[in-house]
Amino acid sequence: MALISLERWREEAAVDIPVDAMVSFEDSVNVWVNRPNVVNRRLTHATVTGRIGCEEELQVSHVLRVLEEKGDIVGHHKGDNTRFEVTMRRLVPRESSEEICELVEAIVQDRENYSYTFIPISNLPTSEKSFQLSAYRISLRLASKDRGPCLRLFVPVTNLPRLTDQTLCPSVTWLAEKLLPKLAHWMEAGSRESDTSDSQWKATIPNSLISEDRYGRLYRQLKEKYGRGMKEIWPEVTDPAKFVYEDVAIAAYLLTLWEDERHHLNVTRKQSFVDLGCGNGLLVHILSQEGHPGYGIDLKRRKIWEMYGPSTVLKETAIVPLEHLAFADTDWLIGNHSDELTPWIPLLAARYQNETERCSPFTCSPLLDVQVVLPDTVFCVALLLL
Fold first, then answer.
1. How far are the Cα atoms of 91, 336, 377 from residue 301, in angstroms, in the given order?
2. Residue 119 DSSP class
3. How does pLDDT run across 145-182, given as a tens digit for each residue?
4. Deepest of 121, 174, 198, 272, by most Cβ within 10 A of its Cβ?
5. Alpha-carbon distance 86 to 326, whole Å?
6. Residues facing residue 85 across a β-bridge
7. Per-residue pLDDT reduced to its tens digit, 72-123
8. Which long-range contacts (CB under 8 A, 24 or more apart) does 94-103 make?
9. What is the 3-state secondary structure (H, E, C) of 124-163?
10. Which of 72-86, 127-141, 244-258, 358-372 has the highest mean pLDDT?
């Protein structure tokens, strides 16, 4: 396969960039390599499973053949000092079906020609056909006396129709209109704001205390187990597409985090919780069904409460923060859409644990009162140590 040379590739799109943005090319593309879900919202995450350096194109072709045959890279060694580096990643979609499942992809970085070539390996007939039907390349054209630098998008030259499912294999239009401008934006932001602490560029850097792979798998399981059926029978006036899957995402995050905590503490007892301002109660329902003892509190009863059954405990009552003393035996306080009660949650935790520490609003630890950002929501949790 003529993977590296441009003789079998045609340019589909280009985006001009400032000269000083060229230094951020590799960092920007690496965001797309490691966290494609920040652009492609149909993905939960990507897992990089191996890297290997190559000096020649023949070595690259050999590595790709091994990938196709064995589904893995023999020798996980970064090639910082080599011309080529082959990265293997696994793309995980939010929706799974017979047509759309996880995709293994090889990414060939050519440092000499400032390019990254993305080649599907699994779920497609052969590497040659995969290459022709859905591969693409992102390259940087350096500045010269006659023209400025730009990002370029290439696709293989072929008479076959391009394979795309808009999730794992994006269309040329999406790559040209969405991905390429986003990479250019990151390059500009990276060169302009790399020294600032609150730049948009740094917001693309992952800051997670849990495994994204385990979270993504659990999210899909809970979505199938609870989300689809609940969406169909949703009796509230609120949008089920938003609120149902939002609570499924929060539940998946907490369950993954709590599993890690139990492993860290070497205990098997599942954490107890109280959800303050539980609203529709779906988060309480999911956590309870997954074996965690707890209950929810809200000022107003919802129609959907009657549908959960006796194992989901929801209470219609008010909470007076300075007087409420009911959480002494609770491991976690959760504030999901807790509104005016949100700033009181760390104070409620402090009533039972003097050593509760404070952390920034975008970090999380089992020992801290925290705020954690998840898709479409902000929720506050506070750990109460026994």
1. 41, 16, 22
2. E
3. 778 899 999 988 877 777 776 678 888 999 999 999 99
4. 121
5. 56
6. 53, 109
7. 554 545 556 788 888 888 888 877 665 557 788 889 899 889 999 998 876 4
8. 94/41, 94/42, 94/43, 94/44, 94/219, 94/220, 94/223, 95/42, 95/167, 96/220, 99/165, 100/165, 100/167, 100/168, 103/168, 103/169
9. CCCHHHHHHHHCEEEEEECCCCCCCCEEEEEEECCCCCCC
10. 244-258
Q: DSSP string spanning 307-360?
A: GT-TTSEEEE----TTT----TT-SEEEEES-GGGGGGHHHHHHTT-TT-EE--
The Cα 312–Cα 326 span in angstroms is 18
Name the strand (E) or helix (H) holding 273: strand 273-276
361 phi/psi in degrees, rounded to 5 = -65, -5
Dihedral angle computed from the Cα positions of residues 342, 347, 349 and 354, in that order, rounded to the nearest 10 degrees: 160
Residue with tokens 């394979």: 163
Structure token pair of residue 222: 């809970």
Quote the tokens at residue 141. Answer: 């054209």
Question: Residue 166: which region, alpha, beta or left (left: phi > 0; alpha: psi -120 to 50)?
Answer: left
pLDDT for the residue 353? 58
pLDDT of 364 higher than 80: no
pLDDT (average), residues 238-251: 87
